[in-house]
Automatic annotation (TrEMBL):
Domain of life: Eukaryota
PANTHER family cross-referenced by the UniProt entry: ALCOHOL O-ACETYLTRANSFERASE 1-RELATED
InterPro entries: Alcohol_O-acetyltransferase (IPR052058), Atf2/Sli1-like (IPR010828), CAT-like_dom_sf (IPR023213)
Protein name: Alcohol acetyltransferase
UniProt cross-references to Pfam families, sorted A to Z: AATase
Length: 508
């Protein structure tokens, strides 16, 4: 039976689909760790799969009816004009996965497993998302993850959906109405239209200058000339290749509430943002772990002259405004690239942060260029599989086969709950992670804040450098540098000061 047409994919959605088709990028995970405070006689953890499905079916059913993106699949997934199709029903028992870990720190393993489970974009049997429940045995908390294909939502959409899911779980827990068991097979509503894609909401036509520059560099110039003209940057110890498995490795780092507040207060004192502070700390940590050598009693530490390139996905929701609330499901992002970032021994942490800050302000206050990057996608090859072939060719065209040294995606503050309300499901902290992208950056940082706790995960392709311990050390040094640089009594922090503590390879 042919499924009803919903609408064509927009360019940003098509780009995400092409990455998935080529297995260059798998999925996004946004979630929260919750602690349950059950009422007398209620079922608590551990639950079996059927009990979790029963608990989640009511809230998920209401969200499926509210958000059409949750009930679509892809038609003609490899064509130049793929479309969204309407599913007739969704069996929730097939898309809720339940597992457990001994301790919170073991969540890295679950995330790595999840990032290997790509969504079959040719299938019309299941939607482009699933729910993952991870019970934590040490404190009887649990993670609630929304794992999804980037085609149907950006990071902010994922955070908004988790906020609504937790809210409805709490409403359900306090309802005085008799609990009837809803069907696990949901018949989606067709009343609400699927939100428009980005190009419908704003003019995404690239400027002539941007079009000529990108068309020449990406489509017409031979690879060796393109690489010779571009600024060099470090992007992993080994060049990207499609011959190695796209295996994501993950390290999660949480600050305490006191440490999170320290970073926030430093941002306020410097009249900057937490995001650019995270960028500066990641620049120092990357240079320290991968491109420097510590000194000794007779010699100063040394660092290479390698420049770096950083990218920051930017949500366009607050720029566009209505109708894009934080809860609208869809993909409304662009990206800012910071090129030729150099860190020397005497480089100031706050000078690096200020550079990032100026660029972010300049590009978000005049967003025509951000929209134009979406418009450029219109000029990719139109034949079947053309977008996938183009993205795979980036392995040859980009420096070391990757677009950047490191990317930071920051969802900001979410999952807010009133502190004085007696809630059954209380948010402890957030989770945000995404699979590595072979041709994007050698490392990806994902940040989110909930309940006053900042989370940062680092993901990378296993084949990009030697040893998991390097990735763990990178995150450990990132955290140390972040907290040292933002100490209230410290006026400045130079890169040479990052060597004052001997790096350790112990896991987080």
């Amino acid at each position: 039976m042919a499924l009803p047409l919903v609408r064509k994919l927009g360019n940003t959605e098509r780009y995400s689909l092409a990455r998935a088709n080529a297995l260059i990028y798998m999925n996004v995970v946004v979630g929260a760790r919750l602690h349950e405070q059950p009422s007398s006689g209620a079922t608590t953890q551990p639950r079996n799969h059927s009990q979790w499905v029963q608990l989640l079916t009511g809230p998920l059913t209401s969200l499926i009816q509210e958000h059409p993106n949750l009930s679509v699949v892809i038609g003609d997934h490899l064509s130049a004009t793929p479309v969204f199709l309407q599913m007739p029903s969704i069996d929730l028992s097939r898309i809720i996965r339940v597992t457990s870990v001994e301790r919170r720190v073991n969540i890295n393993t679950v995330l790595e497993e999840e990032h290997q489970l790509h969504f079959d974009t040719a299938s019309t049997e299941v939607p482009l998302w699933r729910i993952v429940v991870v019970e934590v045995k040490e404190d009887r908390s649990f993670f609630l993850f929304y794992s999804y294909q980037h085609t149907i939502g950006d990071g902010r959409a994922g955070l908004g959906l988790i906020e609504q899911l937790v809210e409805r779980l709490n409403i359900q827990a306090t309802s005085d109405k008799p609990q009837t068991l809803p069907s696990v097979v949901v018949i989606p509503s067709t009343v609400r239209p699927m939100p428009d894609n980005l190009e419908v909401l704003v003019d995404c036509s690239p400027s002539i200058g941007l079009l000529v520059k990108e068309a020449v560099m990406s489509l017409f110039l031979p690879v060796f000339i393109k690489r010779a003209l571009e600024k060099k940057y470090w992007s992993g110890e080994f060049d990207a290749t499609l011959k190695e498995p796209n295996e994501t490795q993950v390290v999660a780092m949480y600050l305490t509430k006191e440490e999170t507040d320290q970073v926030v207060q430093a941002a306020k004192a410097r009249k900057t943002t937490v995001h650019v502070i995270l960028l500066a700390a990641s620049a120092f940590a990357t240079k320290l772990v991968f491109l420097s050598k510590p000194g000794d009693n007779q010699h100063e530490p040394t660092t290479t002259k390698d420049p770096m390139k950083f990218t920051s996905p930017v949500t366009l929701r607050p720029i566009i405004g209505a109708p894009l609330t934080p809860y609208v499901q869809g993909n409304y992002t662009s990206e800012i690239a910071s090129k030729n970032v150099k860190v020397k021994l005497e480089t100031s942490f706050w000078d690096v942060a200020q550079r990032f800050r100026k660029q972010l302000v300049a590009e978000t206050t005049k967003p025509k260029g951000l929209y134009g990057h979406t418009g450029l996608l219109e000029y990719l090859p139109k034949e079947t599989g053309g977008w996938e072939k183009f993205l795979c060719s980036q392995v040859e065209k980009e420096q070391h086969g990757r677009e950047a040294t490191l990317q930071i995606s920051n969802l900001g503050i979410g999952l807010k709950q009133p502190a004085d309300s007696p809630l059954t499901f209380r948010v402890q902290d957030a989770m945000f992670s995404q699979s590595c992208s072979v041709t994007a950056s050698s490392l990806t940082f994902n940040a989110a804040t909930a309940n006053g706790v900042l989370l940062v995960t680092s993901t990378w392709q296993k084949a990009s450098f030697t040893g998991r311990d390097r990735g763990e050390l990178h995150m450990k040094e990132f955290k140390r540098i972040l907290l040292e640089a933002t100490q209230p009594e410290r006026n400045d922090y130079q890169f040479r000061e990052a060597f004052s503590t001997t790096p350790t390879t112990k896991a987080l």
